[in-house]
Amino acid sequence: MLSDSLRKWQVRFCFDALPLALCCFPFLFASLCPAQNHEVLCREGSGSFQAGFPTGVNVQVTAARTGELATRTCAATLSWEKHSLPVTASAPQVDLDSFGVDLGLGVPVATFQVKKSANDCCMEYQIYSLEKPPRLLRTLTGGDFFSAADTDLDGRVEIWTHDAASADSFENLSLGELDSGPTIVLRFAHGELLDVSSEFRSYFDHDIVELRRELNSDDLLNFKSSDGKLSSSLSAERLHEMRGAKAKILEIIWAYLYSGREQQAWELLGEMWPPADLARIHAAILSMRAHGITAQVNGVSKAAPGTRKKRAQIFDAVTKSQSGKLEVIPPEPIMLRRPPLEATADKDLPQSELLLELVIDAAGKVRKVEPAGKAKSVDPNLIYTATGWKFIPAFKAGQAVASRMRLAVSPRQ
Q1: Does some domain include residue 53?
Q2: What is the pLDDT of residues 175-211, one digit of tens each?
Q3: Domain containing 356: what range?
Q4: Residues 275 and 240 occupy one common structural domain
Q5: Residues 319 and 394 reside in one and the same domain
């Protein structure tokens, strides 16, 4: 029996590929399923979710149907009273990224990402108001996956993604040959969408360090001695090595460029790129960026990195007051997944539940995971996977807020 402070969430693990499907009721039963990169609520007709907001607007993500039959596609709908507004009637993948969140548009919103074609590289990010009647406020395109989050817990929610559509096939490199497309960070301010990537340079610097570490010095020298375009006269092995080096160089340049450090980007490009091809690639990079997600923003942040000192208050969603009430309406799960369990007999698994303490930001994303209670250690894969869990955030006085909560997880199937 779980304590009242844990909201009596009974969590069990499952091993199929279905995402967690939950409604927003006080007592929830959750299934944690194997985690994958960029998990979505509904994939090829598998997975569903429904919830209601206090304004009377409801959201539903489910398998698309033809008559009484479910199909291998997904659908999403907003409904209120006797009305409904389809987000998408049929798509290979549909995800609810956030629900009830304040993105800086003056109203609580639901954000969906929709992959319209199985062969498409990217998602379409649709932002709907949750006031009656709900309205489509903004659509963003070109990102491989979108995530609204308050990563630095300063009380402001950003939208993180990669400028994947513009990077796909750039210099004949596929997205599969890149670690990722260029990272871009967006934020709404007074209804305007700003590129705020320059405020998160430490994130880009971490990527730069990793990319430089992975870039082989011999491959770099060989690439700089090439024509830059990598002609087909090279052997297959040599071409593979050179393309790998070229991809790493471009990703490093993009990291400087997208984080607002153009001078450093061009200086480094001059050091790493074949001199005879420098003018061409410089123009190509500028054109790629101009036709990417940056074309959809209204402006660029002028704030210096690290200048904002404000920290969001993290409310307690665990301890009840003497009157028996929590200080916030606690978070509710949207999607929880877990890594597959090791091949361990059920009788050998711990009998007691594992207690995790989570810090969840005002966008419903997990910012911190720690074992709590008597747990001395927890599977590190579970801790890592928990950082990708999604929640409807806690609410106080009708506003989404950051909170600290505890979740009891059974290691037994």
Answers
A1: yes
A2: 999 999 999 999 999 999 999 999 999 999 999 999 9
A3: 1-38+310-413
A4: yes
A5: yes
